[in-house]
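I am writing to request your help with a piece of structural work I have in hand. Thank you for your consideration; the sequence and its tokens are set out here:
=====
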Amino acid sequence: MRGLSAFGDGKGLSVLKNPAAMTVYVVQISDLHLFAKSHQRLLGVDTEASFLAVQKAIVSLDPLPDVLLLTGDLAQDGSAAAYARLRSYLQTLPIDTYWLAGNHDRLHVMNLELHGGRLHAEKSFSRENWSFILLNSLVPGRDSGYLTDRTLLWLRQELQRSRANHHHVLLALHHPPFSVDSDWLDQSALQQPERLFGVLDEFDHVRLVIFGHVHQELHRRRRGVDYFACPSTCVQFLPKSSQFALEVIPPALRQLWLEPDGSFKTQVQRVEAALQTPNLAAKGY
């Protein structure tokens, strides 16, 4: 388990404090890369076995999270069978679970399969005095991400609504909106991120942005907003590598405690039981 990081809200005080609000406990997982058939391997790693070990770690948390967020690349092959099996696993959890798509996913198949019980397809919801907004940065057929005009218009409307409700905001997407100092990964980041920043800079109640895609732990800060990457539940990419490279380090989940005043704490918890040795000779996937 990594050390706990605490952050202030980094903003003005335009959001009114609700003294009756409680801490919202969130867990993020990302980049599961499941397949149509059980126990297929990605870069030498059984992605389903690894995910199930991470899920077991989540179930063992005390208390359980209020919200579980899955930030994309849930299936490697975009198959209905992979999503259906994932649904069967997630529906055993007594946790409200939300998801968004990554570059390996097929959004229309996800919409058909990933709902029911406490598994939700909604991309905007609230808990206590926090609003959660989940963005679709998927561009079919491409590894890089992009936010359409329609998506950015919807984001602006959701931010206006959350501000009117005096809520703090957690924003989630799959692709990082800036360089992660890794040449090969940076080619598949969010394209034209200034379009996203242009919307976010209009508001002062966005507290943090979380994403996946890079299979590693990362923290950046921009104009008072904290940005966090989550490691994968399967293989991990070597940070700051110019070419494709893997790191032998356990999969992980990210924990976040969102406070009523807009501050938060976060940590990455590695799951030793999920560690498998990947194919370090691989040149890509």
Summary: The longest strand covers residues 252-258. The CA atoms of residues 112 and 177 lie 28 Å apart.
